[in-house]
Amino acid sequence: MLSSSLQPLPETNSMEKILVVEDDRAVQKALKRLFESEGFMVDVQADGKSALEAFRASAPSAIVLDLRLPSMSGRDVCREVKQQFPTLPIIILSATTDVTDKVLLLELGADDYVTKPFSPRELLARVRAALRRTTRSEVGEAATFDGISVNFAKMEVLREGRLIEMTAREFNALKFLVQNAERVISRDELLTEVWGYQNYPSTRTVDNHILKIRQKLEKDPANPVHFRTVHGVGYKFVR
Amino acid sequence: MLSSSLQPLPETNSMEKILVVEDDRAVQKALKRLFESEGFMVDVQADGKSALEAFRASAPSAIVLDLRLPSMSGRDVCREVKQQFPTLPIIILSATTDVTDKVLLLELGADDYVTKPFSPRELLARVRAALRRTTRSEVGEAATFDGISVNFAKMEVLREGRLIEMTAREFNALKFLVQNAERVISRDELLTEVWGYQNYPSTRTVDNHILKIRQKLEKDPANPVHFRTVHGVGYKFVR
DNA sequence: TCTGAAATGTAAAATAAATGTCATTATTAG
DNA sequence: CTAATAATGACATTTATTTTACATTTCAGA
């Protein structure tokens, strides 16, 4: 299975949403005011579990996360989120004692951290920096269509910013189709180009892989829009 | 199993010619049969000198070349040909010992190679791939007439900018007619070129396809302007 | 210019072929 | 060895092609 990493969520120049995960009421309030006064939308959650739910529902562009939480540790939230949305910036909020080791944070996948007590200005600066970093990072080498981006170098596919797991064969077939957008590709061509010369599997194999690609990427796999079949010949990808 | 004899060969509409340069009689025969069974025309030569002559005379679209030849080494043939026709694909056939170094082959200008003993399927695949690489038509290249555009790579027909759905056979017949504009095409010719050798349907089949083409593309299908009948012979496309 | 045989047009029915899909089996990587 | 991936086979479904049957047109020769 191909591993994760990420691609920039296109910056919504209108309004960024920040998910704050913090159990201390006083800090909650302070953070909410801080970010809102700077034009961010803020969603506050008190524990890890509800944070993950809120996260899925509201699709924030960054997360400010207290490492100390009830019900589910900040670490788990961090890991969970990063797995699915590798590029989404996470800024950790922690007491000095929590993080003696920066390495731990990197392992968690956090982008930056601020130790309590923190200066509002500093936190704001770091969130902004993290947002900037991800929006700017590597635009190249990725084909995009619909809500999907296919990063050839990383062998990564994202749908609505979420990582879609693909096997190597699936990815290569996808890649070839995408790189030859609009052109009708015969099964023979797919077989020689994607599968290589040595092993020639049966024609059904190609269909099965197309099936998988459709299931993973088409909104309605039964009525494929992007991965079209060209009856009597093969397939064709259209943006 | 992918037995291409069952499938219509979308890539080989206009017969490709392969020049095989090989001194071993047994291999000669095998190769000739292999390629002919897949719809290629084959010219076989046993040595480098006559190969070059045959090459000039018959203008093949690819060369399958044994590196070990009498009178003139395959290397020289390769170099010579590549000098004059840099884009013409050359697939080298060699005993394993001949090729300890792939670099040498690249220097020779070969496009690909297969080591003996080789699998017919593999050789075929490599030849096809090489042909495709050099032939690959640009997406967007289209023949136009009246308000109609025929895009070969996309296998797409537009009439007044609107997509006209066509089946593979219809499209291939259309393509052949358009590519042979002004010329009278007999039913037999259509059958061999579009339908292929294997299956010879009879009488009304061709007519029915022309009918469909007319219905889809002629302004007044009953009075065809572009897809004319040549009574007693066949059809003719005029722009 | 008639007339009938041959050729072609045409739509619909019959047949064939290609594709989607899933369950199963093989293969491969870890 | 196990889990993940890939390939195969079987089957239902969809789509395309061929055939059939008959209508219409063409054209040569009277």
Brief summary of the model shown:
Two copies of one chain form a homodimer. By secondary structure, chain A is an alpha/beta fold.
Walk me through this protein's architecture.
Two copies of one chain form a homodimer. Chain A has 239 residues and is α/β, with parallel strands linked by helices. Chain A folds into two domains: 17-135, 3-Layer(aba) Sandwich (Rossmann fold), CATH 3.40.50; 142-237, Winged helix-like DNA-binding domain superfamily/Winged helix DNA-binding domain (Arc Repressor Mutant, subunit A, Orthogonal Bundle). Helix content of chain A is 40%, strand content 22%. In chain A, α2 runs parallel beside α3 (74-84). The radius of gyration of chain A is 21 Å and the shape is elongated. Mean pLDDT of chain A is 80; it is low at 1-14 and 136-140. The A-B interface holds A 180-184, 186-189, 191-193, 197-198, 200-203, 230-233, 236 and B 1-2, 4, 7-8, 10-11, 121-122, 125-126, 128-129, 132, 139-140, 153-155, 167-169. Chain B binds a DNA duplex (30 and 30 nucleotides) through residues 6-7, 167-170, 201-205, 207-211, 214, 222, 229, 231-232.
Lay out the secondary structure.
The structure is a homodimer of 239-residue chains.
Chain A: E1 17-21, H1 25-37, E2 41-45, H2 48-58, E3 62-66, H3 74-84, E4 90-95, H4 102-108, E5 112-116, H5 120-136, E6 142-145, E7 148-151, E8 156-159, E9 162-164, H6 168-179, E10 184-186, H7 187-195, H8 203-217, E11 227-230, E12 234-237
Parallel strand pairs in A: 1-2, 1-3, 3-4, 4-5
Antiparallel strand pairs in A: 6-7, 7-8, 8-9, 10-12, 11-12
Chain B binds a DNA duplex (30 and 30 nucleotides) through α6 and α8.
